Amino acid sequence: MNKTFVLVAALLGIAGIAAGASAQEPGGTLKKIKDSGRIVMGTRDSSAPLAYTLGGGRYTGYHVEMCERIIDAIRKQINTPALKIEYTLVTSQNRIPLVENGTVDIECGSTTNNVARQKQVAFGLTTYMTEVRMAVKANSGLTSINQLNGKSVVTTTGTTSVQHLRKHERATGIDFKEIYAKDHADAFLLLESGRADAFVMDDNILAGNIANSRNPKDFVITGEVLSVEPIAVMFRKDDPLFKKAVDDSLRAMMKSGELEKLYAKWFQSPIPPRGSNLNMPMGVTLKSLIANPNDRPMEDYAKK
Fold first, then answer.
1. 229, 258, 280 — which closes off a domain?
2. Residues 34-51: tens digit of each pLDDT
């Protein structure tokens, strides 16, 4: 074996080792959070029980707690025990831009995974399935979309709920006034105060706002299902390492039964601040998704 061959082989070996080490180094969002020692979690203030505030900069809920566990797994993966979570309030209007521009690393609220949004951001595995319906006052007599003629319907700016309502066959020929609130809490307040006759939104958000209201028995969730939507955590596009970290953590929670326990805690047990119980058993679709995880968009479910 000549010296030139040995030298080349040695250099290739060193390059190979360097390449292997480099491949194991975190990149993209993982590198960003390792270098900064913090991860920014975007969350909501009135999307109970998925994500909401307890005041004083404290946030809680099914998706908040789930994301805290994802972040704990990431903390171990990148070997950064002191990694801090910075909670940042996002709204329906600004959540996608804040993820796109790097202000928020992972959004843990109540965001629907759909084809249009996938052009701007990426989603983790589906962790909740919601039905879009309407909340009304229990004494209103409203039970169907075709009774909304001449009524005021509120939803939250930046959501797709009223679009689903307009497209529903029972809304044909129905003339209702659309009101757009700045957030879910404001939308519910308009219903509660009588300034809106119906609040159209994801059923879990409706249930959470009702449960935390002064008189929960004054409201009911009713009417036809307008849409079935997969809800997932959201992060930047084109970052396969970060997506893998998120999805691997979620798969582990699903396989161990941890995610089902989290669901029971937030949907079938008393939750803060009033100790209300939403009494929403896990649906067949979500059970199937936990058994066979995927990140398919809303449009895939609409085809069925």
1. 229
2. 999 999 999 999 999 999
